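Dear Dr. V.,

Thank you for agreeing to look over these. As mentioned in my earlier message, I'm a first-year student in the group and I'm still getting used to reading structure tokens, so any feedback on how I've presented them would be very welcome. I ran two proteins. I've put each sequence directly above its structure. The first is here:
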Amino acid sequence: MKWTPVAQLAQIPQGSRKHLVVDQHEYMLIHNRDGLFCVDHRCPHADGSVGDGMVLGKYITCPLHKWRFDLCDGSHKHKGTRNLGVYAVKVEGNDVLIEVP
């Protein structure tokens, strides 16, 4: 895993999100009152754009099929489908970095 700079903190104010592509993989960086989160942009269930879904607290809901994923660990309540990928986020000075494979 490596830390990769993806944005300046001012580019992602609280209440916003930023679509990222790092090494041809899509991520969504989300900043809400609960913190900064980074998840896979694509849903593990049906390949929908989960990163565009509604965020409420520490949860994101896929707009395609309404599954709700935990932003902290990617878990959901449905069996037989892997969790949503989640990635560590840190801020160094004004730089926002994510930890990616």
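The second protein is here, in the same arrangement:
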Amino acid sequence: MKIKGAVHVEEARIDLTPMIDTVMFLLIFFMVTTTLGQKETDLGITLPGSLASNVATVMHAGELVRTLIRYRKASEATKSPYMITIQAEDAAIYERVVEVMNACAGAGIKDVTFGNG
């Protein structure tokens, strides 16, 4: 029998469907994105510090190119890597550095780095 004026209160329920859908979506998302990443590998790069250092004195541009060509050919003959490191002093004229870079290009040397002067 129903009592007049009595309020019937339903029990509160939490719907878990949207939360389960969201968790499944995140799970699938992280599974897919972690398999797409590449693993880091060793690049096998030798740093310039491990090479023998040669110091070139200031000379005429033509003589510098001939010296650099001899250096490149000697390095190729011994199958050792060749690299030129330009160490300009603070008071050096910029055009002289460009001339050295042009001489390296004329000698066919592509590995040119800059060091602290």
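From my reading of the second output: The chain has three helices and two strands. The mean pLDDT is 76. Does that match how you would interpret it?

Kind regards,
E.
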